[in-house]
Amino acid sequence: MQFVYHPKAGEKQLSVDVRAYEHLFKVRRVAKDALVYWRNLEDSLLYAYTIRDIGKKEAWLELVSFSELPCVALKNIHIGWCVVDPKIVEKTLPMLNELGVHKMNFVYGEFSQKNHTLDFERMKRILINSSQQCGRSHLMEIELFSSLQSYLIQYPHSYVLDFSQNVLEKTEAISSMIVGPEGGFSEKERALLKNQPIVGLTCKTILRSETAVVAVASKILA
């Protein structure tokens, strides 16, 4: 764990729920007067707190110092991912977070099952835990679109990942990429995408949606 998350990190004093940080107080057995690093995942600062007292349910911390220490990707990219099974999304999010994807835009495509409902609070917890492990300083942004058309209105210059002779190059300046769901895009959606730049990957196999998303992020950011 690179740091501990707290939404109020930066205040002179913090009170934290010991149960909420079981790993810190029960697994690592951090003791009184120990120095622990915290982030709020909103600014680029890393805050050092000393633990002044530990009770049964609550611990009290005091700010000692802070430093500007951003940990972000060199490229800023957001990915539009047509909604798939939430369990698959939740398993894939930590990988995308570690790679440095700035924002995930989830889009209900024609082939997305409409009964798939994303739990945004759960995804936020997953991203917080991932950030604590990998050291990322800012929380990934998440946005939801009801259709591909509404996504394109917001991001009209988005690239499209599909089968194409135009292979995605690592050096391409791409800030937005849309990836289809299982089954790809419908004919109606392909008509909407006809004027968008389309790129493919070097592999000729048919990728699962989550594999394609990670492959694109890796190609652009890693």
From TrEMBL:
GO biological process: rRNA base methylation
Task of the protein: Specifically methylates the N3 position of the uracil ring of uridine 1498 (m3U1498) in 16S rRNA. Acts on the fully assembled 30S ribosomal subunit.
Compartment(s) of residence: Cytoplasm
GO MF entry, a single one: rRNA (uridine-N3-)-methyltransferase activity
Domain Ribosomal RNA small subunit methyltransferase E methyltransferase intervals: 76-220
Enzyme Commission identifier(s): 2.1.1.193
Family the entry assigns: Belongs to the RNA methyltransferase RsmE family.
Reactions the enzyme catalyzes: uridine(1498) in 16S rRNA + S-adenosyl-L-methionine = N(3)-methyluridine(1498) in 16S rRNA + S-adenosyl-L-homocysteine + H(+)
Keywords: Cytoplasm, Methyltransferase, rRNA processing, S-adenosyl-L-methionine, Transferase
UniProt superkingdom: Bacteria
InterPro entries: Alpha/beta_knot_MTases, RsmE, RsmE_MTase_dom, tRNA_m1G_MTases_N
GO cellular component: a single term: cytoplasm
UniProt-recorded name of the protein: Ribosomal RNA small subunit methyltransferase E
Pfam families, per the entry: Methyltrans_RNA
